[in-house]
Amino acid sequence: AALTVRFLTRRFIGEYGDMEFIYSHNLTVDGREILFHIWDVPNSQQTEEGSSEEKRIQWADSFVLVYSICDRASFNILPLKIRFIKAAKEGQSQEKVPIVIVGNKRDLHHQRVVSSEEGRLLALSLDCGFYEVSAAE
């Protein structure tokens, strides 16, 4: 949620509840107006299987999966999530689904438990993009 709000408002808010939101945002990219719809799902709600997660996957055109570099469990769940997304989206068509893995909390390097190299290697092995960021900065 912090990363989404930072993208939408350029502000950082450190604490969020455990709720899911859909945001809409217009952005001009290369002279073209683009409308984003962002379905922000907290990690605690991403672990469910079944129709709700399937609905989110079918709704989306692309995916940004965020983990905390200070939380190994948030990183370890990514391969399963990405395989689930790819099976649901790419199984229906021959098009590659755009997926980006984002390691957040880069500013908390002293609490890091997931290395940048691990993030890059995971993204490479699953054919995803990769970035490390700090929503706070």
Helical amount among residues, as a percent range?
25-40%
Structural class based on helices, strands and sheet pairing: alpha/beta
* Rg estimate, integer Å: 15 Å
Spatial strand order of the main sheet: 3-4-5
What can be said about the biggest beta sheet? Answer: 3 strands, parallel
| Percentage of residues in strands | 15-25%
Tally of DSSP β-strands: 5
Please work out how many helical segments DSSP would assign: 6
Estimate the global geometry from the Cα principal axes. Answer: globular
- The poorly predicted ranges are none
Mean pLDDT: 82
Compute the separation of the termini in Å. 15 Å
Helix-strand topology string: HEEHHEHHEHE
Protein name: small monomeric GTPase
Catalytic activity: GTP + H2O = GDP + phosphate + H(+)
GO molecular function: G protein activity; GTP binding
Family: Belongs to the small GTPase superfamily. Ras family.
Structure description:
- The protein has helices at residues 2-9, 43-46, 51-59, 72-76, 78-90, 116-125, and strands spanning 21-29, 32-40, 63-68, 99-104, 129-132.
- The mean pLDDT is 82.
- It has six helices and five strands.
- A three-stranded parallel β-sheet has the order 3-4-5. Strands 1-2 form a two-stranded antiparallel ribbon.
- It is globular, with a radius of gyration of 15 Å.
- It is α/β, with parallel strands linked by helices and 137 residues long.
- Helix 6 (116-125) links the parallel strand 4 (99-104) and strand 5 (129-132).
- It is an enzyme of class 3 (hydrolase).
- It catalyses: GTP + H2O = GDP + phosphate + H(+).
- This is small monomeric GTPase.
- InterPro entries: P-loop_NTPase, Ras-related_GTPase, Small_GTPase.
- GO terms for molecular function: G protein activity; GTP binding.
